[in-house]
Amino acid sequence: MAKKGLVGLFVVIGIVILLGIIIGGWYVGTRNTLVTLEESINASWAEIDNQLQRRADLIPNLVNTVKGYATQEREVFTQIAEARAKLAGAGTVGEKAAGYNDLQSALGRLLVVVERYPELKSNVNFIRLQDELAGTENRIAVARKRYNDSVRTFNTKIRRFPTAIIARAMGFVQKEYFQIEERSREVPKVDFES
Predict the structure, then answer these.
(1) 4 within domain boundaries
(2) How many other CB atoms are there within 10 angstroms of residue 80's CB atom?
(3) Cβ 27 vs Cβ 74: under 8 Å
(4) Is residue 5 in some structural domain?
(5) What pLDDT shows up at residue 122?
(6) Which of 25, 66, 77, 186 has the greatest count of CB atoms below 10 A from its CB?
(7) pTM of full prediction above 0.85
């Protein structure tokens, strides 16, 4: 009889150990998945930051080219400089998005100015800079999509049960999407008569 009780005790201990291994493995696997997803977000954000910096580096050349033709358009040049400074000083995703939106708006106004100077539109340096800026805008759009996809995957994962328990315990919080403001979606109006 004592032998059966001892066997039963070993079975219970074995089951407890097995459950501990299963739960521990699940915990470690879930935590590692969350860390991997968070690093994917960080890498995606670094790519956006890289492209925003490339864009910011191109803009002074574009502005200087336009300045030679349109010296009376000081307000637009000032707005671009202020927007670049805001973007450069941004620390959070929200601040970067706001800086990006301001810069996008100022560039839209610059392109309206360009429409007033047909000789500028045929300038080789201006055309080259405009092409580089367009390419950079495309790269920013692709990087922003990757970032937002990574954020969506991560945010979904940390909100689902039972992963939410580990996420909360480990301090994982939802990440912010990189979004464009409505005003940045508006097409700049070009008026050839003014």
Answers:
(1) no
(2) 22
(3) no
(4) no
(5) 67
(6) 66
(7) no
For 57-73, letters b (16+ CB in 10 Å) and e give ebbeebbebbeebbeeb
Q: What is the CATH number of the domain that holds 172?
A: 1.20.1440.20
Residue-number span of the structural domain to which 177 is assigned: 11-185
**Pair of tokens at residue 194:** 């003014």
Distances (CA, A) of 4 to 9, 12, 151: 9, 12, 55
- For 39: left if phi > 0, alpha if psi spans -120 to 50, otherwise beta; the answer is alpha
Kindly state whether residue 3 falls inside one of the protein's structural domains.
Answer: no
Specify if 149 maps to a domain: yes
The structure tokens listed for 126 are 């201006």
User: What gap in Å lies between CA 114 and CA 190, rounded to an integer?
Assistant: 10
Distances (CA, A) of 32 to 38, 114, 163, 164: 10, 51, 11, 14
Total structural domains within the chain: 1
Cα separation, 163 vs 34, whole angstroms = 9
